[in-house]
Please model this.
Amino acid sequence: MVNKNTRSKVEVTIAFIFCAIMLSGLIVHPASAIVIQRSQTVWAAGFGQNTGSYQPWNTGSNQAWTTYLSYEPMFGTNVATGSLIYWLGRSIVWASNKTTIVITLRSDLHWTSFDPSHVLGVTNTTAITTADVKYSFQIHQQMGQLTSLVQRVGNIATAFKVINSTTLNVNLLPAYNGSSEVMRQLTYGFLIFPKAVWENINATYDGDLQFFANNWLDGTTPAKWQVASGMYMPYYFDSSSTIAKINTNWWGKNDPAFGRLPNPQFWGYTNYASNDLALLAMQRGDLDFDGNYLAGLSYIKASYPNIKTYYDDAPYFPDKSADMLVPNHDKYPLNETWLHQALMTVISYSAMSSVDSGYLATPNVMLIPKDDAAARATLNLTLVDEYSVDYDGTGTAGKSILSTYCTFSATYDTWFTKALGPGGYHYPLAEWTVGNNGTIAPWKILDFNGWTDVDAMDTIAANSFTSLLDINVVTDQGSSNQWGVVQAKVNSGDYDLFNMVMSGQLNMNMYERYFQMFSTHNTAGAGGGINAPLGNYTNEELSDLIEELDSAPAGSAAQWEVANAIQTIIGEDLPIIPLGGHPDWQVYSTSYWTNWPNSETNPMLAGSPFAGTTQNANNLAITFGLQPAAAAPSTSVPGYDLTVVIALIGVVGLVLALRMRKPKA
Model:
């Protein structure tokens, strides 16, 4: 028989176990009394963000990811297929004269007012109209987001003409009739927000929105400003995470194209102190989607069955970006095509992919992502093959090129140009200050500190140049080499070669990619502030052709001819040295959610945990497509209303507490 004291201890233990079982799968934030269920939540991680900024006009990464769930775009482009994603927009077509693009919105759209009690079921049937669309684009223009579009249509205030509440005409400037870039910009995924609200915000801040965080959760934002359209609304944030909750008033739940709310009740975004911690969190089921770089992915996939990737086999990820070495074209002989060709002969893409565990695809010499169907529309594969440079691991092919233009000096253990360079000198293939009595130093590849995958690639390249071509090259991975420092060095010309990863988010077709990399007409800069053209490569003929590429009618023979001329120049000059087709990482778990994008069943390139213009509609489409896992882990508490669960815990706890009172003597 169990005595009373023993029974009390048992009952205490049972009480704690019962409460632990009931609360497992719940996340509680004591300060806000917010409770969410793990089984109803998608947790993501990746690039760090400002968790208290919900700026719909800012298409960059320095804001809460949940912004892209609260506000919505008209359209987006699934770059894996080139097809449009229709969201607020029902259609977008050219008028017959190719001078106007006609946009039609869905007719059943409405805004939702935020509910600070977090019930998020407030009824607000104020319609979303084309006036909201026009004003949103005016704010995007005001904040410098629409350089390429404004160049082709002029001022948004006059170019966008509201026909009625659901029809909007966008008129082009005569020189750009039929512009593919205008169509691309209008389908980029720029977020739409309510005119009535943002007119008031803009007036309050005198048009200076740069430091307006639009943080609905800080207790100071007026209720009248807390209006959005998305499937989710801000719910909780702290220094490390943001959480959004389902908007039960979302317009799409009654729309024929959607007809329901998305399945996840919550979206959470969090940060981890290291990539290894994020990996472990995913393996144990605490994380569903991760955009961090994970070294040793081949081993990870073999050892961690919960870790999934876009492809089942290397390179595992879609090729969305171009990773390249940018030579300083203001330095001779770094600006010489023959040198670029020689260097390319010893770049081992397989070695780079191996050190990154299958992250990288072999890039084409034209620097167009393999998996971007829309970007490849004007890509001539015959020219790609013609100008590709074969890898030679012996160095023989590269040295043959060098021997045509250089003489090897045993004294200095390096090559010197046969031709006289600036100032009448034979220049070494090395860092050299003219007139310093022959002292030379290795060329350096300017790297970003902490970009471990990029740094590894550059180390392999530098070692190959040194060992196979006798061109001494090292990497500069200094601790101060953060983005701003590297940007300043590049803009001042203080480098030999630098590594540039040009994001696929902002460079989605051949025109824009080449405009940002090579056009001398680009005064806005490329690559987030790096001087354009990259490496100060200047070619006026190329710049003029790039402009013609978009002014020629989209898909026409004239456009194809211009594209071919551009690719011929790029191939012959080889101004940028490809290192690898670089991915946007997508590692996910199916412990709680399935139907993540993958190459076999759902060919849509995933939106990054930091979202940009083309990612917004992708994020929404992916979110809407997620399905609960068939057999979710047992730690969840499905099928119970939280208030019932908490009340039940309280009742049972009370009963057990009464039973555990000290017995009377």
